[in-house]
Amino acid sequence: MQRPLTRAGLALACLAPALSACGPTAAPIPEESGYFDVFYDVYFVESFAPYAEAASNLVTNDARYLFEKSFGWFFSDAPTVTYNSYPLESSRVQFAHAAGLTGQGQIIGFLDSGFDPTHPDFASKTIYSAENLATLPVDAHGTMVVGVAAADGTGSMIGIAPNADILLGSFDSQAQMADAINLARSIGAVAINNSWGYTNLNATQPGYDSAFGGNGGATYLQALRSYAAEGVVVFALRNDENLTRAGIMDGLPVLEPQLESGWIAVGNAVPEYDDTSIQSVERISSACLESARWCLFADGAWESTTAGGGYEFSTGASFAAPQVSGALALLAEAFSGMGLTPHQLRDRLLASADNSFLDSFDGILDFGNGVTHGFNEEFGHGFLDIRAALLPIGGAAVPTPSGASIPVGEPAVVTGSAFGDAVTEALEGRQVVVEDALAATFTMPAAALSASARPVPLSVMRAAEISGANLAPLREGAVGDGSAGLLGAYGGKMVPTTIETIEANVLMPSLGGSAGISLRQTSEFGSAEINWGFSWLSDQGGPLSIGGPKGPGASNVASLDLGIGGEVAPGAYVSVNAQAGIVTPPAQALFNEISHITFDSLSATLQLASVGRENDLLSFSVAAPPSVNSGTAQTTLPLVLSEGGIGYEDMTLNLAPQSRQIDLGVTYQSPLSENTELFLGAYGSENMAGGRAPNFGAVLAVQFSF
């Protein structure tokens, strides 16, 4: 559907007779308007989840956001076709604003037909110009473009980068543009926005010769080359959906390939989207065409600042482009001091653009270090996604002094319950540096590198044990029972055997689980029995294991076991068992070195037989399950230093928890008849895994045999 090229959003440079006159004629008509709130002053980079509520509040309740929510707008030359636009939401900039990013400290350059630098929404800014601001041409179009990128929020609207400063330059001549571009380079402007184009010059050699062959053309071209070697030149696509060739300015890298790394072309489209992705778009500008490798889209429907201090609604690639320029300012602020160049920020915008709605790709752009992104000739890399550009791209990892890296997203180390939260607590309060595949540096809580396994509650373990057991022999064998050594703390199938006078218990390996053997010798001492022995096991996923994202490693565990028990009164049996040992853990990426780890455990049981009826058994137990009591690990991490800055710091982490778990249990078991057995149990644990909340549970079982 063809519409006049002069409709809203298209500004044309008045440089030569081949160019159309400046200014829109067929304006789109808005339906709604609205206001905005203060920003947060914190930036969390691994996820925007902490800011989801604040971001949602901006787009649903803040009047300055709602000012841009234009539902049911249409072109005056096609009033039956309506569009719904909310560019602040579809660009995902609300997440950046909620996290406190405003473009503070950054400069965006603008070349356009004219500006109103006295607009109240620009009052807080430093304004640069190679021309006299007092004699700079005044025009609505350029004023609107600046508002989209950088309106400071003191009025009815908010720009993409509200605290960015601005450089203004007219495109009345190529010499003036060259002066503005050279000034932008000297003051470090992150981007130069160009919401204009030559209507009849394509990205061909004749178009190139026409654009740069006249007076001032060489000077202008050299200024572009010099600036694009450092900063990013942003050009709007033309507003004719039916064009089959890229314009000379948005497509200039076709003829000057060295410009590509500092070039972005931006088209206009109205998207349909949800909270996570773009579902579809309707393109209302030219396609990217030959500019596809450096092209993306945004919704250019804006109620923006206009000459004279007010606001005006319009749409076009002219107002899509400054969203990208503003996004570059946000990224420059977010990654300031990290050495990222404007070219690297530009790569982030392209590599993170939402291309999920594209049916197919015409090419794959390789950004290096394993990061690639598909594009096609119509929509380039897809739709602007500021949220995604601010998050790690291509995975994130913690660098180490050796040059290796520790991937994040999952804990780098997972300790068994005997360690409690010792590692997490040792890392608490520190910020670790994270790098993504595109060289951006982030921070996240160092404690996120560690996690501790949550132990299975005692009631669940006991329920699992009795569910597969014959209860009557279990009751009969429990009276006066000794110790299975350390292996008694592990769930799994236990196979007892006797080798002459030595009793052995073998813990059979479950699927990917622990396995071991316990040997003991028993001697009688009066009415008591004393047993001593040795346990060895390979702990893989149990209380004394240390693992990582790929699963638990196998810790070699050895312990000395001691037990004493006997009948203290008719039908009353007491047993006390203790273990103490050492752990040799597997190597871990997070730790440079791990010392020998020592641990101990203790349990005591009182068993009363035939207390209510013949052959029943009442048991009381208290236990301190295996807990680390000494051991350290050495690590070297890139941290945010207390005195400021970032640097590697050696840390010694205590592996012993500050408190240990205590388990309590009361059970009652009784034969109800020859073929029926009853089991009741109540269990409680304090300081679960050395510090977690207590846990209580109960077990009821009735077993019938036939």
Précis, in short:
The protein has 14 helices and 36 strands. The protein has an eleven-stranded antiparallel beta sheet with strand order 21-22-23-24-27-28-30-31-34-35-36. Strands 3, 4, 5, 6, 7, 8, 9 and 10 form an eight-stranded mixed beta sheet that branches. A four-stranded antiparallel beta sheet has the order 16-15-18-19, with no helix packed on it.
Mean pLDDT: 87
Task: Give the amount of beta strand, in percent.
Answer: 35-45%
- How far apart the termini lie comes to 83 Å
Q: Reading side by side through the largest sheet, how are the strands ordered?
A: 21-22-23-24-27-28-30-31-34-35-36
The biggest sheet, with number of strands, parallel, antiparallel or mixed sense and barrel status, is: 11 strands, antiparallel
Which class best fits the helix and strand makeup? alpha+beta
pLDDT < 50 stretches:
1-45
Fraction of helical residues: 10-25%
Describe the structure.
It is elongated and about 115 Å long. The N terminus is likely disordered. The longest helix is centred in the middle third of the chain and has 18 residues. Strand 30 and strand 31 form a beta hairpin. It has 706 residues and is α+β, with helices and mostly antiparallel strands.
Write a concise keyword list for the protein shown above.
36 strands; 14 helices; elongated; alpha+beta; 8-stranded mixed sheet; 706 residues
